[in-house]
Structure formats: C-alpha cells, structure tokens
Amino acid sequence: MSETTTNYDKSTIAEMNNGIILANFEKSQVARDGSYQSEADLERQMVENLVAQGYEYIKLSSNKDLYSNLKTQIEKLNKVSFSSEEWSRFLLEYLDAPNDGMIEKTRKIQEDNIYDFTFDDGQVKNIKIIDKKNIHNNFLQVTNQVKGVGKANNRYDVTILVNGLPLVHVELKKRGVDLHEAFNQIHRYSKESFNSEASLYRFVQIFVISNGTYTRYFANTAAQSKNNYEFTCEWADAKNKVICDLEDFTKTFFEKRVILEVLTKYCIFDVSNTLLIMRPYQIAATERILWKIRSSYEAKKAGRPEAGGFIWHTTGSGKTLTSFKAARLATDLDYIDKVFFVVDRKDLDYQTMKEYQRFQPDSVNGSKDTKELKKCIEKDDNRIVVTTIQKLNEFVKRNQTHEIYDKHCVFIFDECHRSQFGDAQRNIRKAFKKYYQFGFTGTPIFSENSLNGETTAGIFGAQLHSYVITDAIRDGKVLKFKVDYNNITAKFKSAEKEEDEQKLKKLENKMLLHPERITEITKYILDVFDTKTHRNEYYDLKHRRMNGFNAMFAVQSVDAAKLYYEEFKRQQKDLPEDKKLRVATIYSFVENEEQRAIGEISEENFDVSAMDSTAKEFLDKVISDYNGYFKTNYSTSGGEFQNYYKDLSLKVKENKIDLLIVVGMFLTGFDAPTLNTLFVDKNLRYHGLIQAYSRTNRILNSVKTFGNIVCFRDLEKATQDAIKTFGDENSLNIILEKSYEDYMHGFTDEESGEIIKGYVDICNEIVDKFPEPTEIVLEADKKEFAKLFGELLKSENILKNFDEFENFEKIISDRQMQDMKSVYVDIRQSTINPGHGGDPGSGENQVDFSDVEFQIDLLKTDEINLDYILSLILEKSKENEDVESIKAEVRRVIRSSLGTRAKEDLIIDFINTTNLSELNNTDDVLESFYSFAKKEKESNIKNLVEEERLKDGSTRFIGKAIDKGYVEYAGDELDRIIPPTSRRRGAREKKKESVLEKIRKIVEVFVGI
Predict the structure, then answer these.
(1) Considering the domain 280-467 in this protein, what is its CATH number?
(2) Chain centroid to CA 252
(3) What is the pLDDT of residues 259-285, one digit of tens each?
(4) Which of 141, 580, 638, 982 is deepest in the core (most CB within 10 A)?
(5) 3-state secondary structure of 169
(6) Which superfamily is assigned to 482-737 in CATH?
(7) Which fold has domain 39-62+137-272?
(8) Which CATH class name applies to 755-858?
(9) Helical (H) or strand (E) element with 117
(10) How far, in Å, are 238, 454, 774, 822 from residue 778 at the CA level?
C-alpha cells in the first residue's frame, strides 16, 4: 500500500495496486510512428497488440465459422465432447432457444451462464458458457472482418471471443473522424445484422468505439438508440486520468484479467432488462472497499477506524450503483457475516430498497421497524440489510447482548449526513466489535466547513477514492451550472448582510417575507418560467411526449413556503388551466439539532404532529389541492403523509409537477433528470449549496444543456467558495457556464483551446452561404448546410436559457428558419432511407454523411402540432385562398416539422375530400378531420391485416401501438400475430421485420389521432 494526495483532495487517499483499475497510468514512452494511419492500419495494430497480450488470433469469416469455433471452445471449457446431434440439441434447448433475442442472450451471460444438459447416454452435466468463479479458465480469442448477414450485409472490424462467444465488439474509424460515426455504425449494425436470427452477435455485451485518438466503451443496450451516445464512457486510472489512445486502451482495458472481470463482476443486468457496465471510478471505489475489508480482516484490524474509509463521489455520479456493487460483492466474502447499507432518512430507506431491487431482485432485506430489522439480522442469508441509522440505533439500545455484535459486519453509510456524526453512530460503533465501516458522500465535511472540528475522514477513516464534480463534468456525467444572481430585490439588500447577525435577525425575517418582495419574485418566476424550463418546447422521453422541464424553488422557512404557495395561486387564478403552472409544496418538522457543517441543510422528518397548528393546517390545504388535481386521497394523518411524499416524488420525476416549493426536503438525495431549474430564496453555503444546485444537473438529453440556478439572494461568493471547496482552485470555469456575451459572440475553450463560434457568426455564415436553402443541389453543400444548421440549433438551445435572448433581433426570419428546418429534415431523411428522396451517400460523387450528428431532439423542441396545421387550413380557407395554394402552404409547414411529416398524405387527402367552405370554426375543422382520420386509420389497419394475413389479435396489437406511439418489439406479442412462416434461411425473421416496418408506418401517421 502507498499513500498520496491530489491537488484537490482534502485528506489522504489510501491506494492499492492490485485492482484492475491502475493506481496511476503512465502513457507508454515507446515512440509511436507519426505517419498517417488508415482504419486498416489501426485494425491491424490492435489485433497484433491483442495477440501480444495473450489472445489467440483466429480467422473466422462467417456465422458458420463462428458456430464451429464455439463448439470447440465450449467443449474445451467444460472438458466434454458433443456429438453433432447433442450440439444441435444444446443449441436448440439453451444457447439458441427459439424467440431468444439480445435480452435473453444477455441474461444467459449475466445470470444463467450454466445449463444442466442431458447427454445422449443419460448423463447430466453442468455446461458453462462462461466461468465466473475462475475467470482465467475462460479462453480469449480475437478475430476481424467477420461478415454479418441480415437486412443488410455488414463487415465487422474487431471482435473479442470469450469461449467462442463474441462478447466484445470493437468498431474503428481512422484518426480525425468523429467518434459519433463509429457509434452510429454500431447502432446501424444492431438494426441490420447483429440481431438477426441465429447471429451469435446477439451475445455481445460490450461495444468499444475508437478513432485511434479517442476510445469509449458502452453496454449493448445503449446501442439500441442513436440518442444514447451520452451512455458511452472512457476508461481511466484511479486518479480519473482518461486512457483514450487506442494502444493505451488496449493495454489496459483489454488486459485479459481486466476484460474478464468487467464482463463477470462489474456488469449489472437490471429488472428493466438494461445492461449497466460500471465506469472506471465506480470500479475503483468498489475495489478499494473490498481491498480495505480484506486487508483489515487479514491484519485483524476489524472494529478500528483504519478498517474503513470514505468514498468521495460527486452528486449525480452513480453512487447508488457503486454502493450496491460493493455491498453485493462484500456479501460473497466467506468471512463476512452481514452487510448493512445504512441511510439517514425514511424516504431514502424506501428509495434505496427500490433502487437495489432494480439492480437485482431479492438482493435486499428491508426493515419496516426495529422488530423487522432484528429478523433481517438473524436471517442466515447473504442479502444486504437496508435500514436507517435511527432504526439500527434503536436495535442496539433494545438488544445490548445480541450475537451479531461479535460477527464480522460491513457497514456502508450513504451520504455521510449530520446524524451519522452523532450519538447514533457512536452507539453502533461501540456495540459492534468486528465492523468495517465505509461512507459515501458527494460533499465531505472538511475542516473548512466543519462547525465543531469533526470531519468525514475523522469519523470514517482515510479517503479511499475521489471523483469530484470537475471530473464528472469533464466526463459528461453531469451538467454545468448556469447561475443568475437576480437583483430584483435590491431594495431589500440591507437585510442580507452577514455582519452583526443577531441584531439584524428580526429585521431580516421581516423584510425577506415582505409581501411586496414575495409578489415581485413570484411575478418574475412566472414571467421567466417558460424560458428557463423550455416549457413550450417538446421532446420524446421513453416513448412519452414531454413539454419542457420542471423546477424547484428553495425557500428559507415554512412561513416563506406558505406565502409563496398562496401568491402563486393568487397570480394564476385568472389564467386558463392549460397556462397555469402546477405548483406543489412539502415541508415537515425540523428538530433543533446541533449542526456539524457550515451550510448544512436541516433534515425534515415525517413527524407532522410536531408541527405547529397553522403549519399543519396549511399543509392539509396544500395536500387537498394536490388530491383535487391528481384524484388522490392523501393527508397528514398516520402514514399518509409519507405516502404523499412518495407520490409527489414520483410526480416530480415524471414532470407532472411544474414547480415544487421546498424548505429542506428534496434538496439532498433526490434525483429527477427532468428537473433543470432551481430558484433560490434561501441562504445556502458549502455542502448545502452544492447539494441543492446538483438537483438540476442530471443528464437527460441534448435539449437539457445545463442546470439553471436563479438566486434571489447574494450567493455569488458562497457559490465560488463552495465550488473551490468541493472541486479545486480552477473549478469555476469548468463548473459554471459561460456568459450571454460569450455564447452570442464566441469564446475560446480553456480546456481544449478550441475556438467556439458565437450565435451571431453562425447565423450570418449560414445566411451568407445558403440564402435559399431549398435550392441546395450538391451533396457536399447539403452536408455543409447540415453541419452548420446543427451548430445553429445547439447554440440557440443554449441561448434560450438567457433572459436577454428574448429581446434579440433575429438575423434569420421565421419564414427562412422554417425552410431551413424543412431542408435539414429532408437531408436527414435521405441519409436514413437511401433511394427515397435522394441518396447523399450514393453515386459517383459520393458524400459520406455518417459523421454528421443530426440534432433531432433540438429540432423536435419547436414542433408544429396537428392542431396548428388544422387551424391554418381553416384560416386560409376563410381568406378564400384556392385549394392548391392552401395545400402548398400546409405542405411547407408540415415538412418543417418532424412530428407531422408522416401525416402529410393524410392531411392532403383530408383537404382533397372536404368542402372547406363548410368549415365555420375550429371545432368544425377538428371534428371533421378526426372523423376522417379515424376511418382512414381503421381502413389502413384492416388492409394490413388482410394483406399480411395476420392472426387474431393483430388489430388490437396495432391499435395499442398507435396509442403508445411505438411498436413493442420485445416479448412475444408481435410473434403471436405473424402467420405461419418457415424458419429456413431466416424467412420468418424477414417476415417479422417486414410486418414491423409496416406497422411502424401506420403508427407514425396515426399516433396522436
């Protein structure tokens, strides 16, 4: 063991050097050939390096070759010999069971890797496809240029075989090519050939993409959508130094022990059939906890402070997954009797249980009360016990001589909160004799922000690993913050001085709750809400149509929450329902406990009875409003208040609450990726400030570019101090967004030195180069336009968050912008469907569009909806325009919108078959269109069922797909409606794909109708 300190670490980091994550990676000093490297050169070099690392090279050209090699390797692994009949039966029964898709194959690798197979002589043997207990029994091979057959024929670059199964696939591009191109290619292969019937590539668990200079890896499930690039991640050492060059990546990530441990130990296949692969910092933290347990056990140090440590992983970096994996692997240690995951609040108890059960069903014992906790502790199983510190403390008080105290127990504390520094923590440490104690925190308590001298390191021991906010932002795991310091209440500024605080306390409370101040701030929030949260823009999330994001409003006290809630109701009372913000609030009793850290957010519990009567009465009124809106039946009595909390938590995550007013609850430990804005009328510092701000910076999609913070108090210095404490001295430029002027006129990125073009320059360039975008003919020009317009969409999406942008005089007219969008969508469609409306990638002057990243999410934010188009038809008919002019105008509008493009023929048919002069008002046109569309929908479904001879239930299946907005491919519902078709040469799979495509087209046309 060695010890070191980084420039931002506030305590000593204990290091270990025998994990798969290198303690400190040093780039190879071997001189690299500086000559040009083609894609073929990269591939050849990678294969040579893998062979030098102990992989066997095998030349396999086809799926048939893969199966032949697979039989040999499975026989070698299991020391058996299959006859050809037995092998065919093994494939049919287990490895290639009918209807198996990628999900079922992944389950076989991750969970069901052993099969009891009966040989022809009656012997039953356990046949492994991967050995998880003795990973070095697995045999690694490398092959390249395997031909994949499916809807299209593909050639795959480099494939890693484990016991003959292709479990890792590498897609390469030459240096200088955008890495998105390799990702998009894997996405295309997953649709065209990886998942075709009898393809062994359905077993791939990990994809790697590289252009030589940059390399990333990701799980198979991330390849299912082009929008999942953010789920790719880089490999790194224990100090979070990225290992990006392909040669260095190959030496480390593809070292035999490393890749086998990643595949067998650091993957999780969760209950939603998503494969999660841990990031290097998560693996490093897990390894260090396990190393600390093992070394402390061997040195007989259990029960001492040095038998533990803490993990400093920033908020939003996936601590729950890391803690689960560490706890799960600790339960597998022979000498560990019980593993406890200890949380500080009832709601976290509930949330953690749910999260852990999502990772692995039946992995957890939960405890509703102390009696239940006692039963969990006494169960002879290897489940993790999830409990609160309060319940565990109560157990210790009631059971002072329990046998568990003399057993080896691991304690993992989530978020080292205040109460874990108090008497409860001391009582637990005193009772248990052989414990190993670990803390997870995103905001440790250092001497700088400690009130009484106690620090995280002082309680938990050495810092075992760190991954701070600057690391997470650099890696694209969380977003930056855009902080506005609003001077709307400058006339109340005297109340915010920190000097002579005692004398100013009464005045401060009075002035900060002044009715005029409450009114002004409420009005301001209502004025900017749509802009800050993109409320009038749309995007798709898990097949749901969402409008914008939602926000939280942190206020100083229960009195403030009450005043703001009432003021929002008052100012919105005359608005139509669809224009009102859905506002909710929640608060509870706060015990007057000693605070241990500067800026700590006081914990609220669920003891409503301890509140004063006016606060409780108002809370009843708030919950009554909530019940009225959501048709629920919660209250403050009994356990119903906690149920209100849980339901409110869910509604915020589902973006069904627009604005949540909070005092302390939800400001720590709560994740809602749809939340992008925090309004602050509360004094925040250090730990509390970073925790509160971090509610907004979860990654969701390309529309959400940063976390918006709007401060109504002077928090600029507090923000800078907190960032320096939990990042480093150079953190401000990394963590905080650029100014409005920077985005308008351009700036130089401090990290990369890259010059970022400003919005004004982008607008002028595109207007200058493409004044008439509809007249672009050359494919090279189309590609340049697509790249430039993508930059424009990204720049505009960021600027929409700035108040000043509202008054910016447009350089591009609305009409011009509509034409540009239409052309942009046309170009994108032609790259997806070659031969339909032109093929940018074909012909003599072939232009490769694969490195163009189309900003589809950003295009969807400004969607034209169907009602608008129908209103336009009515408006134009009233102006007595001829039908052909109306159709031309309607076509132009439809084509500028992704969401309505598929409906073009339907709408034009409606115009052709309807007497527009009979439509007098909006209700007439809506009723007439929806009646027409309903008949067309029924006719289309009926024709498809008859043409394809689909089975009973197909009409219901298609109708359900239209209602949901997508066709459910997983499961066997689609399979059940396909007519009897031979499986020879993949005929049934082709039939299924053909029917699926036709149903998708019907869904595109009729969704939302």
Answers:
(1) 3.40.50.300
(2) 26
(3) 999 999 999 998 888 899 999 999 999
(4) 141
(5) strand
(6) P-loop containing nucleotide triphosphate hydrolases (3.40.50.300)
(7) tt1808, chain A (3.90.1570)
(8) mainly alpha
(9) strand 114-118
(10) 49, 68, 12, 17
Tokens at 567, concatenated: 């003021």
Beta carbons within 8 Å of 239's beta carbon, 6+ residues apart: 6, 23, 24
Q: What is the DSSP string of 363-389?
A: -EEE-SSHHHHHHHHHS-S--EEEEEH
| Three-state DSSP class for residue 8 | coil
Nearest to 915 by CA among 888, 938, 883, 939: 883
pLDDT digits (tens, 9 = 90+) for 283-307: 999 999 999 999 999 999 999 888 9
683 touches 692 (CB < 8 A): no
Using N-to-C axis directions, what is the helix angle for 866-878 and 922-948, rounded to 10°?
Answer: 120
- Give CA–CA dist 508/502, Å, rounded: 10
Strand, helix or coil at 664?
A: coil
Nearest to 478 by CA among 317, 328, 353, 298: 317
Q: Which of 100, 77, 126 is nearest to 203 (CA)?
A: 100
> What are the distances in angstroms from CA 785 to CA 321, 440, 782?
42, 48, 5
Largest CA distance in the chain: 92
* Cα distance between residue 718 and residue 721, in whole Å: 5
Residue 96 near residue 108, CB atoms below 8 Å: no
pLDDT confidence band for 12 (50 / 70 / 90): very low
The CA distance from 342 to 349, in Å, is 8
- Degrees (nearest 5) of the Cα angle 675, 680, 682? 135
